[in-house]
User: Fold these one by one.
Assistant:
Number 1:
Amino acid sequence: MKERFKKIRMDGTINVNMDSKKGVWTADKRTVINMMRLVCEEYQRDNYTLTLRQLYYQLVSRDVIPNHDKVYKKISSLKDDAVYGGLIDWNIFEDRGRVPSVPYHVDGIEHALERAASWHTLDRQENQNNHIEVWTEKDAISSILKRVTSPFGVTLVVNKGYTSSTAIYGAYKRFSEAINHGQKIKILYFGDHDPSGLDMIRDINDRLMMMFIRGADEDILNDAFGHWKEKAYSVYDVLNLNDRYEKVGSLMEGNDSDEVYELFEQGQKELYLKDKGFFEIIQVGLTMDQINEFNPPPNPAKMTDPRMKGYVAKFGRVSWEVDALKPKVMERIVKSAIISQMNMDMYDAILKIEKEEKKIIRGFSDKINEEE
């Protein structure tokens, strides 16, 4: 709803002193606000909500504004003026950090049955070979990703940066159960292309693998691990797997201690998980191929990031945020990645059963109406 609370001046010039290299950005205020309105209307037509950062990147990609922190702050101020002045619909924006908790209620039995039918959803991942989850560092795009993950019954994990140890342990327990049911774990990771964003993939992999190989729950590996161990995997296979097992090499000769045995056993477990493909993190975005295809506006990589040196050596001094992609592009990327890991015939069969069960629930409502 475009509700007006105060008057704003549309005429005038915007002047932002960026820095000594980039100088002063000057623009017509009316032109910038009208372009903001255009972006918001485009998102609203497709039933998307919008974050301030997404609005900002859309203006950058259309060459309306330069990509600079001080310009971002100015756009934030202009956005507030535009919604308070009734120029932009309030409902196009959402604040995911301040969501009220509204108690559930219904208007009667019929309403309750209709809601039950609408919400009746079976496990759409049942009997799949892969246990699929989509992980992202960005809460700002979670509402977009949910539009893809929810129909497939895929769990969406929003880490808000590096994930917590509690969240990692929760994932370990979910994945352990899935492995015990014969499924392979596929984490589809969708995040920024910058030093920290890419390092988060490594961090998630290392911490989960550590729990798998050191965890007390031996059931994760089932009896299959015992059969697999009987194959002639030498100690050198373990030593060559990862530098972390170099310690085994210095202890092996003439040493039959528990420490050596434990390290070797952990190495075998990691080899097993990788050999059988039980656990995999797949970077579905933001990739260099996508950057070349969609040309999102670049940002200078943060020189203070401790992972900066390795990133610059490989990609240079620029980085890209996943927020800069259009929502339809995000949806298409993630949907394609999910479908590539799913048995769609199995999925369609679950949907068919679900549809029939919804009819049964709605039938109870019809019976109530007949009795009345």
Number 2:
Amino acid sequence: MKVATMKTAHTIPPLAEQPRTHVDTATAAAYLGRAPDTLRTWSHTQSGPIRPRNVNGRLAWPVKDIRRVLGE
């Protein structure tokens, strides 16, 4: 799966093989099939199915919650 970010495009592993506990907004959006702005709105309004953590001013989305939402 390819994900385009503002800096560069990178390949992300399948969700089942994701080694990290939290992922950035672009990666989380790719897994969920949503636009990154949708996830940012979820965070801002606290209305989405996942609550990110704020780490040094950046959103970090829990992989376990992404798996839960996708039924994995």
Number 3:
Amino acid sequence: MEDASYFRLKNLEIGYAVGPGRRLYVSAQNLFTITNYSGLDPESTDILDRGTYPQATALLFGMNATF
């Protein structure tokens, strides 16, 4: 039996208004996980941890614009 408690930053979005109708943004998913769990992913739904892959980190950069 092992303690699988964890703290994870799942979603973060930061935006900046450049002008009227324009916005730059950075969005990130699964930035980091703090845990003492020895397996790969403490959020695994398997009853037995058989080495399931951890959640991938994703970064997205973009610009919203209206004309």
Number 4:
Amino acid sequence: MGTLQENSGQLVVMRCWCGIQHAVPASLRTEQLRQHNDGKNVMGVYCPLGHTHVPAGEREVDRLQQRLQAEKRILEAEREEHAQTRAELDHTEHRRRAEKAAKTRLKKRAAAGVCPCCNRTFENLARHMQSKHPDFAEAKRA
């Protein structure tokens, strides 16, 4: 026969997979759950038939690691998107500067009397553009 032992602390009733119900001190169960959540080796609690009971399910450490990995993936995706947007902005800015430079060169050449269509030099470029290249003036307005 077994001996009866008094316990002044709280007890937690557990059911083993074999169906046996047994009580363990609440502090033991709390420590077991803490170890499980912390990712440490969990001490087993045994039922009267000798079966080990350890907490099942996903540990808090695993959930936090998965969440951290998901956040890292999101951050990396946002960084890649930022880098792509920055590259597109740089390309657009480069193209805008090139177009502005070409326009400035064309204006300076026209001011110097060089025809932008045939590259000939004329003293009266305005008269030349109206008489020889009337469609050029139409295209500029549109």
